[in-house]
Amino acid sequence: MKKITIRLFIVLLVAILVVVLWRMVRPSAAEQGNHFVYQTVPVVRGDVQSTISASGTIEPEELVDVGAQVSGKIVSFGLDTEGAEVDYCSTVTNGMVLAKIDDVTYLADLDVARAQLSNAVASVTSAKASLAKAEVDLSHAKKDWDRAQRIGVGLALSQSDYDSYQATYESAVAARGMEEASVLQADAGVVQARASVEKAERNLDYCTITAPVDGTVIDRRVNLGQTVVSSMSASSLFLVAKDLRHVRIWAAVNEADVGSLYEGQPVSFTIDTFPGKRFAGTVRRVRLNATITSNVVTYTVEIDTENPDRVLLPYLTANVEFITGSAERA
Predict the structure, then answer these.
(1) Global pTM?
(2) Beta carbons of 131 and 183 less than 8 angstroms apart
(3) From the CA atom positions of the chain, what is the Rg in Å?
């Protein structure tokens, strides 16, 4: 009886295992209609690279903030290289007019300064003439005083006349000194007036805003008729990117990875707006002014890259991979 029970238990156990295995390999109703095709490929050796990933933004190689050094109303904009009014994306060259500020007040200031200069020059002429007269008076007084000294006080020359000649001579000496000082003062007035003229001319020149470099206007911050006010810092009117054929990436790299970076290191990066396309660059430098956020230290790494087609627009996000090592397939 005992042997029969053991045999029944073994049979039941085998039956349960068969059912479980059948349920595992039996396709479901949804899978019964599908037909699977498996494809095999040979295993081959390939190139491998060790990289450090980071994210950054594309920045112009050199960005110039063009400001106004005088206050006034914008009365006109200049023309770009294509003859259109300067605006966003305009291409400009060094010295090209970007905008003009109303210069009526500054023209009047220049006229006043030039009139003051003419007056100062005339004052010099007058002072020199007075000095020449003082020289003549001094010469005449000196002769009389010398003569009085030779004659002396006596029957031919009274004490009163003697004292009068002496006083006249000494007054002439003092008068000449005063006229010499007047000439110096007049000369200083001319220098000051010329400085005022130069300042007025410079302020008038500042009414014409010109491009300091060859480049592209990426931001125009004023409109026609708008009044700009110059204060301690120049008012910003335009942002000009020097040359968008050469751009840089500013990538934020964690402190744990920055030790593996070096100048000239090859870099590969992608841009979301061009999926599947890779661009190349090189590390220019690692900035030392680290940023600390929530106890996380990151360094800004500058990456140089060429942009001959100008498809890399400023401020696009770049997904950067610093190549720290590579091996080619054997």
Answers:
(1) 0.69
(2) yes
(3) 46
